Every structure is written in C-alpha cells, then in structure tokens.
Amino acid sequence: MRLTDSQRLIIYYFNSVSNGFSICGCLFICGMYLKFIELRTFPFRLIFVLSIFDIFSSIGYMLPTFDLYDDDALCQIQGAVINMFTLASALWAGIIAFSLYYIIVKSNFYIQSYMRYFIIGVFTLSIIVTIIPFTSRTYGTVAGWCWIKQDGSYDISFYERYILFFVPMWLLVIINGVLYMKVSKCLKNSDDPDGARSELNRKLKFYPMILIICFLPYTIKSSLEFKNESFTIRHDFELTIVVGTIRGMHGFLNAFVYGFTKKVRNALNARVAANDTEISIMLPASENDPKSFIKEMK
What we know:
This protein is 74% helix and 3% strand. By secondary structure, the chain is an all-alpha fold. It has one domain (5-297): Rhopdopsin 7-helix transmembrane proteins. A two-stranded antiparallel sheet has the order 1-2.
C-alpha cells in the first residue's frame, strides 16, 4: 500500500528530528576540533572527517521531498546525497578501524601520512557508486524519502541497491568487527598501568555496533519489501517511522561514541573553568606514541 502524502509528511518530521540530533552532535565534534589545539591529533582528525560525512548525510535526509515525484530535481538530489555520504561515513568508519589496527596491533604510525589518500579514495568510490543510479535513472521515492527505487523484481535497481550499498555496508561491518577483535586482543595482552587500554577496550565493541543498530532494521525492511511480505505492506507507515528514526541517529551515535572522549570532556571542563590561557598553549600529544594514541581514543 502506497503511503499517503500526509503519512510521508509525518515520516519527514520524525526523520528531521533524529537527523537534527545527528547534525548537532557532529557540529559539536567539529567545533571542538576547530576550537582546541590539543584535539588536533590524528585520532581526532579521523573523527572530525567522520562528522563531516555524517552532517551531509543527515542534511540529505532532511531535504523536504515528502510531496515530490521521482523525476523532481530535489528528489534526485536527495537520493544522490544520501547514497554518497552514507556510504562515505561507513567507509570512513572502516578507515578508523584500519588505523586502530595498524597503530595499536602493528605499531605502524606511517598510516597517519596517508590521511589525504584515504579521503580521496573514499570520495572517489562514493562518487562512482552515486553516479551509477543517475545513469540508470533509478533514484526515486521510497517510503518516506528518495533513494534507489525497488519494485520487487531482479532488475537494475535491485542490483544497485544491494550490491552498491547493502552488501558493502555489511562487508564493512564484518571487516570492522574482525579488526576490532584483533585490537581488543592486543589491548588485553598488554600492560595497562593507567587503565587507558582497558577503557579503550570497553569502547571498542560499540564502534561496529553503531552500523548494526542503524542499518540492520533498514536492511530487514528492504528485504521484506522486496519479497512483498504482507506484514510489511500493512505496517509500512509505522515501520518506516521506526527505521528512518533509528537510521537518522547514525551521526549522533558516531559523534557520541567516537568523539566524546575523555580528552574532549577535559577540554570542556577546562573551558567551563575559564582556563583559557592554559588551553591556548597546550599542544597536541605526540602522534608516534602508542600510549598517546590509546589515550586519545578512550
């Protein structure tokens, strides 16, 4: 059953609230990075870039397309923006996992010099994946927003939706999980005099969980829609609200779990205490010290 315009409007309001939270959380991380010199280190630069991707992804979801049709320009723009920056965010989460693995497990700090190449690679791949549905004209209205359409047949839109998005997404979840297990094992087997390794180890399990929490409901709903399950058809409105709201919190969860570190909290406390002079002269920690890197991330 096709959603009515009023139902799509309600879905848009729910999406706007959750994505608004995400934008606020990501702007907080970006503001902290730009404000405090001591946060301009490699770990927080990774988180800063992740926040930028999440901001644009959330902006894409907040575009008002609830009353538009497939061929409307804004609908096409929303589909492209969502596709590009959601995938870029997921890929960058993989870059963070890869960096943690190389620095903590392999003690290889040369990876920091590849930052610009990571950004170029993620952008290039995301742009390619975004352009393909444009060439096949498969962007259009889906549930409460615009993205790659799905009509229940094994056509070009099916392969674009699953092979270009869902399959890479879940491969990244698996890869991230494997890398974080290796990092966790290394942290457990290392000396931990100040408890920093234990703190980071406790956080590690939340990193891959963000992707699972935000995209598993959407993946399940998309699969059920493809199979034309009667439950999904009858409750499409309610399910879309739940799925869209959870998906919209992706940026907020990233900002909270990745970005709200102890060092960020200390910087905020110092600001509240009006220790401006002390903050302004603090320098970033050494980026070639595993202990410093671990403290940055915990």
